[in-house]
Each structure stands twice: as structure tokens, then as C-alpha cells.
Design a protein that fits this description.
Elements (H helix, E strand, L loop, with lengths): L2 E8 L2 E9 L321 H11 L7 H7 L2 H18 L3 H22 L9 H10 L5 H19 L5 H21 L2
Antiparallel strand pairs: 1-2
Length: about 475
């Protein structure tokens, strides 16, 4: 805060230094007269030792100048002798002209005589229109009166109050005397006293023989049987074509019928009604058997029944596996069913693919050991959570499975690690040459991927899925090597 240094002098001598902020208050919050912002004096009351408050008035409403008004002429309540405040308004909020701060008098009208909605005492708005939108002459902003007529006396249809338009005719075409523009009355009589005008044509435009001035009868045909558009009663012109350009034989001048085919049955692009050209190929390039020149049908399958991805219409590849890697019996390439059950497949796999009978107690103990059961259990868990896209859980289960695996292979190799961590076990496996470098690298990648997911929240679905797949292959290979 910025303070202004004030030097106080007592009897001509420098007494002390005081600092005041830009609002005039010192560090204790008091002004030069000893009052704080709340109007309380240093002595703890609202008045100084002379009995005057922050505004200069005492408890009897007397000012320091000895009167009831301050030096600007206002009393303790802020009003001058005439009863108005510094802004010119009395205690009720009205100025000397009897208008309030919003500019309206007690009756609700401003100095121009309009209320808050803009209407005067005569009911007209300051813009000149009444509440219904009509001006003092009775017309709205579109120029029409309440009856719907403009200043010239016509309504929006151009008719005056007598029902006549600007030319003096009513809606039926008759003037005030009952004659139309051609001098016929409603009964069809002409002013000449006959039913025909001086040229011999009646009010409907036809002469006594039933033809109009252009030579057409009431049916619209001339003496040769053609209409004004020059078509006969069958709809053909003098050249023998109808309005759409087709002749009596159904073909147009270019040789195509209404369906767009010529006499040989082909359209202008060379395709017949079945959609094939002379070579038997349709507009999309497929023959009648449904294959294009690449030998592929519309669904993407080749003549041999497989698509470019190698799957047939039932969704299986040439080896009999579907897109998820399962055969028709529900087992994947690694021998797992969709529930992740592994024992049945392991034993079946060993019997069918490894020339060893499971009559060896050592082999049975190896596959059914507690560590291996936990390995397979957590692989199963990893598979299940991966299917629901829980990558963090997949990474965790995969790492746990790999840790049980390293414990198992160290135990089965009768080797002890120097430490308790997975890193220690993998280092011991490397030093003991139990697994190849690429398999140890896989287990390290599983370890770091699990750490990234659990500790750092870094999840990678693609990497985790690949690690899961590689680890399953490693386990199968390892089991087979001991049988």
C-alpha cells in the first residue's frame, strides 16, 4: 500500500512522521481527524472529544460551524433548507418539478406527457399509434384503417367499399351499370341489343356456328381436329408424335420407348432390362454368375469361396478357424475354448500332438503343480478381462502369471534366485541359461508393461494383447519340452 508521509510539527519542531494511504487512512485505519472507515473515533465512540462525528455533526444534529447545516448547506440527513438532497430530490424522491429519478411524476407521466409504456393521456403512443396500432387518422403502419381500407379507399384485394376495383369493375367483371368490358350484361346481351357483338361473337367468345375468332370450337378443336397445341384427340401431332415425343408405335425419334429401350431391348447405354450388355456384364461389372473380371462377387468372395482375408461365407479360413481364432468346435489354435478352460485341451493336446502317454507321475506332477496351476489360472483371468477391454487388469494378471512361471521354472530347475523380485528371478534365469534370450526378453516386457499399467496408468491394448499371445505360446512350448 502506498502511504504519504506527513510531517507533524509541534511548536516549530519536527515531532513525528505519519503515513496515510491514498484514501487518507494511516496504518491503524484512522484518518487525520481520528475516525476509521466505520465512523468510529480512536476514543471508541462515534464522536471526537468535542462531541462531533465523522460527518461534522453532534448528537443534537448541530454542525461544527454552529448551524444545523454543513458548509455545503446540507443537514445531517443530507437535505438543504428547501428539503432537497445534493442530487435535487426530496425525501419522497421527487425533484422541484415533481418528477422522480426515473423521470415520472406521481401520476406516472414524464415531462413530455407519456407513461412508462410510452402512451399519453390521450391513449396514443409517443410514436403516434394507439394501443391497437392505429394513428390519429385511424390508419395502421400498413396504411389500412380498422375496416381494412387504405387512404384511397381500397382494401388489400384492391376493392373499394362499393365492391369495385380500380378500373370500376366488380369481382364478376361488371361495372356499376352492369356492363362488362366487352359491353355484355349478366344475361349475355350486348349493348347493340343482340346476343353477339358487332363482330358476331357472343359473351363467351363463340359465334353462332360455335367457333371462336381463332377457329376453335368449344371442345378446343379446329375443323381439322387439332387443338391449339396442334394435337388430335388421340394426343398425336401432325407428325404422329405425342407431347412426350413418342410415336404411335411407342418409340421416339431416336428409337427408344418410354422405358428407355430400343427395338432390340437395349437402352442408350447398351444394357437390357435385366441390366446386362451384349457381353453379359452388368453396370457394376459383374456377369450373370455374379463375378467380376477379377473373379470376385459382390460380397467379396472369390470363386473358391474365400474372400481376400481368407475366410469363407461361414467365417472360417482354409485351416478351419474363424476370425477370432476358434474352430467349429469352439477351440482356438492354442487349445482354449471360449470359457478359457485349459485342462481338457492340455491333456487332449498332449495325447493328440505329443507322442507321450500321461502315465508318468513326474510329467503329471509337472503339469498339475501348484505353480503351473496358478500360471494357467492367471492366464485365464487375463484372457477374460482382456475380452472386456480392461487392459490394466489384463496387464496385472499377465504379470502375476509370468511371476508364477519364473518361480516354477526356477523350482523345477532347482535354482534359487538371489532376490525376491521378478527382475531378480529373470536375472538368475539368464545367468543359469534356463531360457533363451528372446523368452527372457518377453518376460521382461510383461514385467514392465504391468508396471506401466499399475503404477503409471499407461495402458496399451495392442502391446498387452501381443504379450498375452506370446506368453501363451511360451507356456505351451515349455510344457511340451518336459513331456
Amino acid at each position: 500500500m502506498v502511504f504519504q508521509k506527513i510531517v507533524l510539527l509541534v511548536k516549530g519542531k519536527k515531532n513525528s512522521d505519519k503515513y496515510y494511504d491514498q484514501s487518507g487512512y494511516d496504518k491503524e485505519g484512522y484518518d487525520r481527524r481520528g475516525f476509521n472507515r466505520n465512523g468510529t473515533h480512536k476514543n471508541g465512540t462515534k464522536y471526537n472529544k468535542k462531541g462531533y462525528g465523522m460527518n461534522g455533526f453532534n448528537s443534537k444534529s448541530e454542525h461544527e460551524n454552529g448551524s444545523k447545516y454543513d458548509d455545503n448547506g446540507y443537514n445531517i440527513n443530507g437535505f438543504d433548507k428547501a428539503g432537497f438532497d445534493v442530487f435535487g430530490y426530496d425525501i419522497n424522491g421527487f425533484d422541484k418539478l415533481k418528477y422522480n429519478r426515473s423521470g415520472y411524476n406521481k401520476s406516472g407521466f414524464d415531462i413530455e406527457g407519456y407513461n412508462r409504456k410510452g402512451f399519453g393521456k390521450d391513449g396514443f403512443h409517443r410514436k403516434g399509434f394507439d394501443r391497437d396500432g392505429y394513428d390519429r387518422d385511424g390508419y395502421n403502419n400498413m396504411g389500412y384503417d380498422r375496416g381494412g381500407y387504405n387512404r384511397e379507399g381500397f382494401n388489400r384485394r384492391g376493392v373499394n367499399r362499393e365492391g369495385l376495383n380500380g378500373e370500376g369493375y366488380d369481382q364478376d367483371g361488371f361495372d356499376a351499370l352492369g356492363w362488362d368490358r366487352n359491353s355484355f350484361n349478366k344475361e349475355g346481351s350486348h349493348k347493340n341489343g343482340t346476343f353477339f357483338d358487332n363482330d358476331g361473337y357472343g359473351r363467351d367468345g363463340f359465334n353462332i356456328n360455335g367457333f371462336d375468332q381463332a377457329g376453335y370450337n368449344r371442345g378446343g378443336y379446329d375443323l381439322n381436329g387439332f387443338t391449339r397445341e396442334r394435337y388430335d384427340k388421340e394426343g398425336f401431332n401432325e407428325e404422329g408424335f405425342d407431347k412426350e415425343g413418342y410415336g404411335r408405335d411407342g418409340y421416339n425419334k431416336t428409337g427408344y420407348n418410354r422405358d428407355g429401350y430400343n427395338i432390340d431391348g437395349f437402352d442408350s447405354f447398351g444394357y437390357n432390362v435385366e441390366g446386362y450388355n451384349l457381353e453379359g456384364i452388368d453396370t457394376e461389372g459383374y456377369n450373370r454368375q455374379g463375378f467380376n473380371h477379377y473373379g470376385v462377387d459382390r460380397e467379396g468372395y472369390r470363386i473358391n469361396g474365400f474372400n481376400d482375408q481368407g475366410y469363407n461365407r461361414q467365417g472360417y479360413d482354409m485351416e478351419g478357424y474363424d476370425g477370432r481364432g476358434f474352430d467349429k468346435n469352439g477351440f482356438d489354435r492354442q487349445g482354449y475354448n471360449k470359457k478359457g478352460e485349459y485342462k481338457e485341451y492340455i491333456y487332449e493336446y498332449i495325447r493328440n500332438n505329443i507322442a507321450v502317454e500321461l502315465d508318468s507321475e513326474a510329467n503329471e506332477d509337472l503339469i498339475s503343480s501348484e505353480q503351473m496351476m496358478k500360471v494357467l489360472l492367471f492366464i485365464d483371468k487375463a484372457i477374460k478381462v482382456f475380452e472386456i477391454r480392461d487392459i490394466a487388469a489384463t496387464s496385472t494378471h499377465l504379470r502375476i502369471a509370468s511371476e508364477f512361471f519364473t518361480k516354477e521354472i526356477l523350482a523345477s530347475s532347482k535354482v534359487s534366485a538371489m532376490g525376491e523380485t521378478q527382475f531378480d528371478r529373470l536375472e538368475q534365469i539368464r545367468l543359469s541359461s534356463i531360457l533363451s534370450k528372446d523368452k527372457i526378453d518377453l518376460l521382461h516386457r510383461i514385467r514392465t508393461n504391468g508396471n506401466n499399467a499399475v503404477h503409471d496408468g499407461l495402458e496399451n491394448s495392442s502391446i498387452t494383447g501381443d504379450l498375452l499371445k506370446e506368453f501363451k505360446l511360451l507356456i505351451n512350448e515349455w510344457v511340451s519340452s518336459f513331456l
